[in-house]
Fold these 4 entries.
Entry 1:
Amino acid sequence: MLKCSFKSATGFDCPGCGLQRSVLALLEGDLVGAFVYWPTLFPLLAAIALTAVYLLSKRPLFMTIAYRLYIVSVVFLLGNWLLKMTGVIPCPV
């Protein structure tokens, strides 16, 4: 695992804390582990996939759904980060 430069510089967990472990868990087929490490991964991947589908099909519905998933991703990211900063849940690093 790569060392987090944000945490090294500030001493605080970064919003992306757990991303590497989440991707590795997903690649190993551990969906629950991937969600536990970084819950933002699933809505973000879905939004990226829908953006790609939109670019291929040019149907506005796909981009509308993708925008909403990007907003959900930001909410998950900030909520997860705030829970980690307050100590409610530990950072997996």
Note: The mean pLDDT is 91.
Entry 2:
Amino acid sequence: MSLQATRPLPPGTRGWLPLLVLAVLLVFWEAAVRLAAAQGLVPLPSGVVRSAVTLSSNGVIFEAMSGSLTRVLIGFVVGALIGVPLGLLIGVVPAMDRALRPVLDALRSIAPIAWIPMAILWLGVRGDAALFVVAYAAVFPFIVNTAQAARQIDRRLLSAARALGAGPWVVLRSVLLPGSMPTIFTGARIALAFAWASIVAAELAIGIKIQGQGRSVAGIGQLMVETLYVQRDVDALVFYMLAIGLVSLLIDSGLRWLQRRLLPWSPH
């Protein structure tokens, strides 16, 4: 007896079926928390929605995100300005690779958040400490991916360019950078993801210090710390977590779009 083939879902149900499952889960979640009388300790879906409306209307979430994104952008640019030239140098000059690899591997093995205490000690609890952590997190993906891209450049192309009289800057502009850009963009996506994760961690740690000194909120991490220790609002905390994930998704999607526009020949 042959088994009957499973019928595929009708085309009209494929769009709303995941939404229906999500809605059922949220209803059960809401009911379970209310029946267990765990409000205040466990977030409610309805409370998260209320917090989203309130914090979006008064602009608190946008102000905090703006501060965090500014630090991420500055740290990302600093990481690129250091990492890309250093990666090209390591990838092209074997002696530099042998000389710098042990130091870079040792530094790369240290998690960026492990530098938070030293950054606070050196730079204080203002934005400079978080900026240092973000730049540290962003620089190594640039170095590693750029060096790998430079190593993969066909050396015959470099030799041909030099044979035609091209100087170092011409070789860099016409051969090395165009051939390395797809891999550099991959490193940029990784660097930006690391930078965003690091700014949240750094601001959470620094936010404890700021909150203890009565200073104002300067980023999403500090806002989460203030919400936890002052307001005790778990619904708002969940909303901040969702906002952090959404911003991360938008950042990565923006880089993918930029890569498609600037490098149409590269694999995506």
Note: Residues 210-216 have pLDDT under 50 and may be disordered.
Entry 3:
Amino acid sequence: MTQTTSSAGLALELRDVRKSFGKTEIIRGASLAVKQGERVALIGPNGAGKSTLFNLISGRMPVSSGEILLNGEAIHGKKPYDINRRGLARSFQVSNLFPRLSVFENIRCAVLWSMGQRYTFWRFLTDLTAVNQRAEEVLDMIRLRRKRDTSVSLLTYAEQRALEVGVTIAGGGNVILLDEPTAGMSKSETANFVRMIREVTEGKTLLTVEHDMGVVFGLADRIAVLVYGEVIAFDTPENVRANERVKEAYLGSVLAESQAAEAGV
């Protein structure tokens, strides 16, 4: 295990990370240092490279150059499942659920893999006490107890998003990546969802991509602004809101659009 003293107290660290597709450089020297237990929102205009950065962190894409460290250990170049076993869990924009299984069964599948269990024809899942107990705990955390035995295909959109978060945290990872968790939700659904995220990530490190500025400023301890593949600001919500470079590059137009939408313009 490779440890670095400069990474003490950091859950996730990116050092001059770059990603190119052919001659096109998408991520251009991104650096980020997320503290343990910190909630960070990653924002930026469409095409800024947010999803690409998530794919690099979670191992779905290899970096072209640079370093990515998880809890002080280098993870760039490792497979996604290997990174997951080291404590990083990620959700996706597109649903990754099993629609024909129940809510409980989806969570149990995630717990099984995290605990090193595998499906075997001679062992009944109901006999796996620790797995079932953990699945029940997650069920309560995401507030879907009443839908325990409901098929995923019958859940509302917001309930499916909550289940996706449950599947993400089921493995007990200490660094959670959420990709646009509130996209497509109403205001009331979003408010409830943010409260749930706060609860389920308590004591964990959270990095989330989010476009809803209300969610960003209400949830994040710090905000990272990605523009054209570079982190141009990484600070508290108050300082980011006041940052002239951020306003010019992104935030000013987004806040104006948000205010216009609220006013019904």
Note: Residues 244-262 form the longest helix (19 residues).
Entry 4:
Amino acid sequence: MIDHLTRTVRDADRSVAFFSRVLHPLGYGVTMRFAEYVGFGTKAKPYFWVKAGGVPTTPMHLAFVAPSRAAVDRFYEEALAAGAQDNGAPGLRTDYHPHYYAAFVTDVDGHYLEAVCHLPPARKAPPKRPLARGAAKGKAKKRRR
């Protein structure tokens, strides 16, 4: 629903490095830079911007869409490795809905970040059946007349 968001941070270089690492598993990266602004998003456009300046005293909660549960897990691992603090390990939050899979961290400026996947778990492909004895893969057996 939100087209884009700009967030003021204390140290732009530190935050750009942090978000570059944390958002990469979710499929986002730096897509635009101008003046003191750095935009993160997809090839389509930047959706999330950071700029240096005074930071509000009240922390902000920001949730990023993740394409899979594995991406949520990677977001969490990268966030902790990049200096964030744990605020809720990856897992289901069924109070929200049955497939709400999320991880929560507190970033380097004290804001709350979340990565969330709303999809059910990925289904594994059924095991392939062996070919019938004597059947050639992709070829029909010729009959003799």
Note: The mean pLDDT is 88.
